[in-house]
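Handout, page 2. Input:
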Amino acid sequence: MSERVCVLGAGSWGTALAHVLTRNGHRVTAWARRAAVAEEINTRHQNTRYLPEIGLAPFRATADMTEALTDATVLVCVVPSHVVREVLEQARPRLEGGILLVSASKGIEVGTDLRMSEVFAEVLEGREAERPVVLSGPSFAEELARGLPTACAAASRSPTNREHVQRLFQNEHLRIYTLADVIGTELGGSLKNVIALAAGISDGLRLGNNARAALITRGLAEIIRLATRLGAEEHTLAGLAGIGDLILTCTGDLSRNRTVGLAIGSGRALDEVLAGMHNVVEGIRTTRAAVELAERHDVELPIANAVHSILYDGVAPSEALARLMARDPKPERWS
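Output:
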């Protein structure tokens, strides 16, 4: 059954999802902040700023929020996490009753330490607290848009809603698996970006494969410690939204967070690296939010703290590494 879908955000991931939904037979309108991006999508079926060299299915794009949301039965929010609140507040007066909400933005809101579904609930005054479906998992936008095999997770406390999203997105190239653990899915998708920065820094320092494997494994332990303290189910972090997304982001050449980490580890300044990028690097803000969240809940995150010291305190990567390695011995699991 064809649906009318509004995709909020025309960056790489939003464009890829709009492309997939259109190919699945749905009527899609993507909202873009930049009118020039919308115009290029409409006239050339391309988004060369965010997803170059990909021919797009013929979906509609607009910079007009009202036009984007008109008659929509599904809203997919794919804007960067730090503007989710602002964009939802713009969309709220135009939302029709009964619209299905999907969050595909990965991050934690700095200042409030809220997950994206919690931002949804707060902006919408709690009316939709049980309804959003979180879409996450190991998925580079370019590979998905090219039709390469991809698997993602759709999490919601509502079985009806998560199965609805599964039917909406799944096709011969994309498999969607459902689960109920929204907390674990969101935190896995957010915190893996912090560990990917660390893995990139390690590779930039040429520390080797052993170091990268250790960072991924101990990074997963940090994610599990914090996520389960906040109510997540540990087995979620062993799935697509946890270890799957973590491995991809820490090792894949298309990972923006790993790329930035590589540059920092190679001696480049963060501001210089970011100046040459169009896409948002979520791990930078998420590192700050993760450290704040961990301090609030008395959870130890050594790797996240090391990344924070590099990004925000001017600590040299080599010094941050030395501090990590000099920590007191620990059992492999502790709470």
